[in-house]
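Ticket #4471: complex job returned nothing on first submit. Input attached below:
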Amino acid sequence: MTNPTAAMLVIGDEILSGRTRDANMYHLANELTKVGIDLKEVRVVSDDKDAIIAAIRSLKQRFDTVFTSGGIGPTHDDITADCVAQAFDVAIDVRKDAYDLMDAHYKAQGSEFTETRMRMARIPDTATLIENPVSIAPGFTIENVHVMAGVPKIFEAMVASVLPTVSGGEPLISQTYRIERGEGIVAEPLRDLAEKYSDLSLGSYPFQKNGAFGTNIVIRGTDEARVSAAIQDLTAQFPNNGVE
Amino acid sequence: MTNPTAAMLVIGDEILSGRTRDANMYHLANELTKVGIDLKEVRVVSDDKDAIIAAIRSLKQRFDTVFTSGGIGPTHDDITADCVAQAFDVAIDVRKDAYDLMDAHYKAQGSEFTETRMRMARIPDTATLIENPVSIAPGFTIENVHVMAGVPKIFEAMVASVLPTVSGGEPLISQTYRIERGEGIVAEPLRDLAEKYSDLSLGSYPFQKNGAFGTNIVIRGTDEARVSAAIQDLTAQFPNNGVE
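Support reply: We reran it on our side without changes. The output follows.
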């Protein structure tokens, strides 16, 4: 069985200029791994209409599910919702369900529901809303694309409410074995192991810290017994973590 | 004058599985901003031949310069060099210049130049080598694509030696003004400001920390006087950082 696939689209000049270090990609990657969905591609594009539309059109076609992050706030450069509508060829306007949610929220807060805030109630036709428990202005899902905020706290809350609706594959089991030898020494036995356990995914991650160096071997698969067998095989070849 | 453009391709399952948090994107984004090159797109793809080749072909055509990170180590899943060769339709084999560098290094170290390590001397025809002061095995440049290692220390060293050879645009001046008001309040004045200063780039970045919330406004441009004028304009509208 192959797992369902996913892609992520991160929208925003702040990542590409190096001003902000992306946190949402790391969060989503971990959440998807837990439920057995394979994140296959991430794209980061700037607040540019053509770039956003082209990326959404390409990703929604090639992957089972697409998650977007960023560009749905109230400012002039928040153009994601309009771009998504265009990518799906549907109309977009301030929508009553989103408007009502936000209107009630600002009334309860005693603050004004300004025209710029109303931008955040623009939702494409046929989309369903994604709850925003942090600041109310919702995300939305249209077909296989989930459109979410870029602020990490809100993004994480939206991912938590969307993920149970996305059917995952078998969760991935992952085990790590640390070998106190460089990747050059480990590579050949690892290649043989990868051939023997072709149903598993083997990764090697060199580390170098405080003068010590070595390689972490991560073995992943959906069958726990197979993962354990591969780890035992590796342990037999590099007993005692490869320390001579 | 428009700045030269760049794209980055990050190769590796470890980012997409959430095992490793990407550091190279953040580093490169900052370095490019300093020298006035606009990073327009980042893609992260898995260790998959077709995905890597397709991404390189697409990016090298659309942007002035492409930087890749990852997949040039000695293990079975390090396939970047071969994919780049294929994307450029050139041959690839162990190349004497790379071989000699590494051979001398391992001899000096008293360690063996194994067959698996020799994988790292595979360099596409017509490419020039990028120095690796950390662990010798080189990266390479072919036309407008710079192929570098994924280990952050090595990636950073390679970026440092490549960047002076890439002609940048005018360095970007960036100034930030902190406003202790939500993005919904700031959005409208900001839109007017963006119209008035259409030669500058204005970004708003909401923050929420320990109960306090507000918006950082970042104004970027190549003309320092214009950036300062826009900041003064904004300060006049929200004196005292917007604190009432």
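The mean pLDDT of chain B is 91. Closing as resolved unless it happens again.
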